[in-house]
Write a structure and sequence with these properties.
- The complex is a heterodimer.
- Chain A has helices spanning 4-19, 32-36, 40-54, 69-77.
- Chain A is an all-alpha fold.
- Chain B has helices spanning 32-48, 71-80, 83-106, 122-128, 156-163, 166-175, 181-187, 199-210, 215-225, 230-244, 247-258; strands at residues 3-5, 9-14, 17-22, 54-59, 64-66, 110-115, 118-120, 132-136, 140-142, 178-180, 192-194.
- In chain B, the strands form 2 sheets. In chain B, strands 1-2-3-4-6-8-11 form a 7-stranded mixed β-sheet, with helices on both faces. A 4-stranded mixed β-sheet of chain B has the order 5-7-9-10.
- The radius of gyration of chain B is 18 Å and the shape is globular.
- The chains are: A mainly alpha, B alpha/beta.
């Protein structure tokens, strides 16, 4: 099982690649809506990538109010 | 008419396949314009069926296949007229969209939806009238209507119940959560999951395969294994219109339309 830091790093790698943002500009506590410049529909496409990458199901309602990478990693880890 | 170029929908017949493109920004929301153009397609189908064996719906919008009903147009309609007139208008809209959906559902053509990205609400209902759904791996399927105090209104629940196990139907409808393509395939909703950007190409390949078979036999098989739940569909319109009359729906629509939150699509 990956450590929390590994999960966060993988999320940041995926988000940077998907939305073409320099990886070094992303930090675990960033608001990913603001930092990636995405709306809710684009956030769902990130959710799809994360589900595929980590092979988990993440119901949308578990992401209600979640806007930073660290909390997102916690939600994913709870299902690994 | 082998070709049609509308404001929000276009179609052309290629090698016996009617390819219907949805191209209404941002994500093919279904309002009056879409309804009118879908009605034109439905009216043209009997003539098109003479020279075609399959039909493919797909989207040219990057965000996805279709985000469902046009909630902003709906909300404006509720604001601009008396409640009773607005509900009558909503009922007429639903009767018309049901007629269109039923026409596609009952068509002797083999119908395919090649979907990607957002396939929500009315968009999922359009996909559900098709015989086969081919989803690229970016696709997400959702019935978010309960968040608005509604149930799906374009034939969603009756067709879900026809095609899937009831536990899956309840999961989708009651929670309002979205399924990715793999989950949707496991649930029996999706026929094939393909790579990103490949749904239309694979739908074309599949349609070419379908063209090898005798049309009369294919139509007979479809009629036998895909009954249309007309009674439940009519009942759905009544339930939806009753729900629209509740103040909670208008309040939820107002909240959605006026929201500046980053996550209006999340429950």
């Amino acid at each position: 099982m990956p450590t929390e830091q590994q999960t966060i790093d993988e999320i940041l790698d995926l988000a940077a690649a998907q939305f073409k943002v320099p990886r070094e500009k992303l930090s675990p506590d960033d608001d990913f809506f603001k930092k990636l410049g995405i709306d809710s529909l684009q956030a769902l496409s990130l959710l799809t990538r994360l589900e595929q990458h980590f092979n988990v199901e993440l119901p949308d309602y578990e992401l209600q109010g979640v806007s930073d990478f660290r909390t997102l990693a916690e939600r994913i880890e709870a299902r690994l | 008419m082998n070709q049609y170029q509308g404001k929000v929908i276009s179609w052309e017949v290629k090698q016996g396949v009617i390819e219907v493109a949805l191209h209404h920004a941002p994500c093919n929301e279904i309002g009056l314009q879409s309804l009118e153009e879908l009605e034109q397609l439905a009216a043209a189908l009997p003539a098109l069926e003479e020279s075609a064996h399959a039909l493919i719906f797909y989207s040219r919008q990057e965000a996805g296949f279709c985000a469902g009903g046009d909630l902003r147009e709906l909300y404006r309609g509720l604001q601009q007229t008396k409640k009773s007139a607005a509900i009558a208008g909503i009922k007429e809209f639903h009767q018309r969209i049901h007629h269109v959906m039923n026409t596609f559902d009952a068509s002797p053509l083999t119908t395919l939806a090649g979907v990607h990205g957002i396939t929500f609400g009315g968009g999922l209902e359009l996909a559900l009238v098709c015989d086969l759904i081919i989803a690229d791996k970016t696709a997400r399927f959702c019935f978010p209507e309960l968040r608005l105090g509604l149930i799906p209104g374009f034939g969603g629940i009756p067709r879900l119940k026809r095609d899937l196990g009831n536990a899956v139907v309840r999961d989708l409808v009651f929670t309002g959560r979205s399924f990715n393509a793999t989950k949707a395939q496991q649930a029996g909703l999706v026929s094939q999951v393909v790579g990103e950007g490949e749904a239309l190409r694979i739908a074309r390949v599949t349609a070419a395969q379908l063209g090898k078979f005798d049309r009369h036999t294919a139509a007979a098989a479809k009629k036998f294994c895909k009954p249309i739940p007309y009674d439940e569909l009519r009942r759905e319109i009544e339930i939806v219109c009753d729900l629209y009359a509740r103040p909670a729906v208008e309040a939820a629509l107002k909240k959605f339309v006026e929201s500046t939150a980053a996550q209006p699509y999340l429950p």
